[in-house]
Automatic annotation (TrEMBL):
Organism the protein comes from: Anisodus tanguticus
Thioesterase domain location: 120-193
InterPro entries: ACOT13, HotDog_dom_sf, Thioestr_dom
One Pfam family per UniProt: 4HBT
MF-aspect GO terms: fatty acyl-CoA hydrolase activity
Family affiliation: Belongs to the thioesterase PaaI family.
UniProt protein name: Thioesterase domain-containing protein
Length: 211
């Protein structure tokens, strides 16, 4: 798109100096068409504070990052504008393989919906799957009379899970007491057994048990 705009500038200069009616008309049509290309919206608001110590190049790069991921002015489809709609991202990719006391194992398909621009599993999707599996794992040892509050989540991105591969996700309760439960979640490529992600999740039990 930037290349096209550079061509527009050159054509505008050509329009200003040419006397050839045919070339003038052709150049004018191209300029008009190119100007119809929508400019990307900025992620910065009118009152966004940008430090004077930050270079214009760095500020532009930050703006580009947020613009590319469409954080500003994004129109969400109706099915995602509701309670727990975030779960829709992973629900169709995750299948339960086995459930035992303190252990849950799932098979995850790395579909395009949860992949990044590098054609591997998106880091945010890893976190979403960890939370889902860890809660399920904790529920095998924590009674339904207790609510689980995620108090801490640690992630290690060791390698990458390529798109269109299957990953074995194993959740294991490390310890569970009166007021908290700690769950470890490992991601391994199904065909190679290679460890790609590790996580520890700490859940607080609500209400807190009396001493």
């Amino acid at each position: 798109m930037n290349e096209m705009r550079e061509k527009v500038a050159k054509l505008e200069a050509l329009v200003d100096v040419t006397d050839d009616a045919e070339n003038l008309e052709a150049a004018g049509r191209i300029v008009k068409k190119a100007k119809e290309i929508p400019k990307p919206n900025s992620s910065y608001m009118k009152d966004t504070i940008i430090s004077k110590e930050l270079s214009k190049e760095a500020a532009s790069l930050v703006d580009l990052l947020f613009t590319r991921v469409r954080l500003q002015g994004a129109n969400f489809p109706p099915q995602y504008d509701g309670k727990d709609s975030f779960s829709e991202l992973t629900r169709g990719c995750l299948k339960v393989h086995s459930v035992r006391p303190g252990k849950v194992s799932c098979i995850l398909s790395v579909k395009p919906a949860i992949s990044n621009v590098y054609h591997s599993m998106h880091g945010g999707a890893v976190g979403a799957v960890v939370e889902r599996v860890a809660i399920a794992c904790a529920r095998t040892v924590v009674g339904k009379d207790k609510e689980l509050f995620l108090g801490e989540l640690g992630m290690s991105y060791i390698s990458a899970a390529p798109s269109n591969t299957e990953v074995v996700v194993d959740g294991s309760v490390i310890r569970s007491g009166r007021n908290l439960t700690v769950v470890a979640v490992d991601f391994r490529l199904k065909d190679l057994g290679k460890l790609v992600y590790k996580s520890n999740a700490t859940f607080y039990h609500m209400p807190v048990a009396s001493l």
